[in-house]
Design goal:
Organism: Actinomadura latina
Strand content: under 5%
GO molecular function: ATP binding
Keywords: ATP-binding, Nucleotide-binding
Order of helices and strands: H
Radius of gyration: 14 Å
Number of strands: 0
InterPro entries: HATPase_C_sf (IPR036890)
Protein name: ATP-binding protein
């Protein structure tokens, strides 16, 4: 598996109640919050 990256960063969504997808980042965000992990600022270089 390779990931070439994208032009932006992933963003959290509020999926419809019956939607089959769109909850991955919500799960990661909830786990990170429960572990008190906030990450570090990204350094972008051109």
């Amino acid at each position: 598996v390779t990931d070439q990256g994208g032009p932006g960063e992933p963003t959290l969504r509020n999926p419809a109640e019956l939607a089959e997808g769109g909850r991955g980042l919500l799960t990661v965000d909830a786990l990170a919050a429960s572990w008190s992990w906030t990450g570090t600022p990204r350094v972008l270089r051109s």
